[in-house]
Amino acid sequence: MKYIITATAMLIATQASAAEPYGVWQTITDETGAHLLVNVHPCETDEAKLCGTIAEVVNSDNPAANDLINRPIFWDLEPAEENHWDNGTVFDVPSGKEYNSRVILGKTALRVEGCVATFCDGQNWKRPKE
């Protein structure tokens, strides 16, 4: 019986940690084969808010790409409901522009969106393969 309880507790703990937005996420791969690895974490100024920082630029031939490392890609997202953060800002790397943002955590993806007025568009990020 002790082993069943322990196994059940481990399964619940694993499922709970899988539902966390924190950790490294991979952006979509662009037409050149490049993508970003983004570290998602609580914001330093307010740990209740969600932030993302570029950790690595992968497969980019652009020498300026390394300047993106440690740059915030989204910040100050407030918890709106379970697995949903809103009212933050996102940096669009290709355009260099900032937009209102929201982030939604799904079962296997992190949906990161930039919004202008009521129109939103974004990407579904995946956990990188080890």
Explained architecture:
The structure is a single chain. The protein has about 130 residues and is mostly beta strands. It is built from one helix and eight strands, in the order αββββββββ. The chain has one helix at about 1-20, and strands at about 25, 35-40, 50-60, 70-80, 85-90, 95-105, 110-115, 120-125. Strands 1-2-3-4-5-6-7-8 form an eight-stranded antiparallel beta sheet, with no helix packed on it. It is globular, with a radius of gyration of 16 Å. Mean pLDDT is about 85; it is low at about 1-15.
Report the structural category. Answer: mainly beta
SSE series? HEEEEEEEE
Supply Rg: 16 Å
Within the largest sheet, what's the order of strands?
1-2-3-4-5-6-7-8
Mean pLDDT metric: 87
Strand content: over 45%
What gap, in angstroms, lies between the N and C termini?
35 Å
**Fraction of residues in helices?**
10-25%
Main beta-sheet annotation: 8 strands, antiparallel
Tally of helical segments: 1
Low-confidence stretches: 1-17
Q: Can you count the beta strands?
A: 8
Globular, elongated, flat, extended or rod-shaped: what is the shape?
Answer: globular
